[in-house]
Amino acid sequence: MKNVLVVDDDEKICWAFEQFLESEGYAPSIANSAEEGLRRIAADKPDVVLLDVNLPGMSGLEALGEIKANHPGVIVIIITAYDDVETTIEAMRLQAFDFVPKPIDLGIVKSTLERAFRTQSVRSTLPVEAADASPTAQVGHRLVGKSSQMREIYKLIGIMASNTMTVLIEGETGTGKDLVARAIHTGSERKEKPFVPVDCGALPDELLESELFGYEAGAFTDAKREGKPGRFELADGGTLFLDEVGNMTPALQVKLLRALQTQEIERLGGTRTLKVDVRIIAATNQELGEMVRRGQFREDLYYRFKRIALHLPPLRERQEDIPLLVTHFLQLIQEELGKPIRGISTEGMQLLQDYPWPGNVRELENCVRSAATLSRSDVVLPDDLPSEIRMGNKVSATDASQLETTLKAVLQDTTKAAIAEGRQGLYEEVVAMLDKTLIELVLDEFSGNHSKTAELLGMSRTTLLKKIKQSSDADVE
Q: Which CATH class is domain 148-315?
């Protein structure tokens, strides 16, 4: 039997609740004060509590705090005035499952109770966490997965950790390239020395060079009087991780190649040659081989990186790892939220495994973080997941279909106009127009951030800047 305790000092409301709950197949019990309610919870262990906020003596919110501290498994639904925003916010902060507004709508009560008992049902299928369980080395961002692809990655990490050769990590955005780089460093003889990451896509060209090689006093405007060591110097004896290395300009590629070959650098504005002992691990979400063919990346530097290459598979190719990743992220997230998260329902997990995850592991983590934050209990239900996950591919498929239909209509009119006017070069005209419009839209979405724009468009930052310049020159003409 599904046991529901009603805690309210209004006898008429208690009677109405009792009649309603019995008619819906629940086993109701009544308490007219918070103190009596707490005694009944300890003795009867109800599944769900309907708790009024305005009670004589101890308030409903005080009682909620006591219940969550001593009986965390009990689901508490708060009864409060519809416009009492502050109370509602405080109740949710104290981990109330939901609230029922006054005047009471039995339809809302019914749907809220159904959701509460569905949560209890899911909870009963999840493993019980030991009372003395505490965060261990398992907690913390790390590589997770037991798929055949990930087992091969682990083997390669072990091999790469045993030597000091330059490594290139390839993979889509969000696949965990930084975690692989850290794992190689941690497993190597250099683990006691610094691991220094540099995001080559996050810094303007002029700043990236000074960031890597440092500068002497007066090297440029605003340079510090005492100068500044670069990341090569800071990583001496350890590992320098160059993320999104495909965004480097040709001039900087030349300087990096020389540093790799000689293990020597010069600060900007300096004349001294500094010896460094640095292992380079580079990462990219771009096809460097294709960039070499297009003349956008130096061939000699590419093959220097390519000595040992490791390709990280996208999450859609290793869906069997999703349950492990979800469990891992929930461990991390419950520390931040300050509340236990037991797990996710079977239906919710299936939705996660059916989704293609264009943003890979990073997108999955953000999704789990959002769902755990929105969950009103210690389990995640499908309703807690973002709408695009619940709808799966339907949204993207519909959008693609609508986009194709719209483009066809516009291009049909454009084609007819070009024929009527006897124009030529229609292909280049349309492609240039689409190029310019799309780049402007994405730039606007990212508030002018070139690196993020290039990443979304799937091109190098250098290519993006070149296209922007070409578009600007065309406008001037």
A: alpha beta
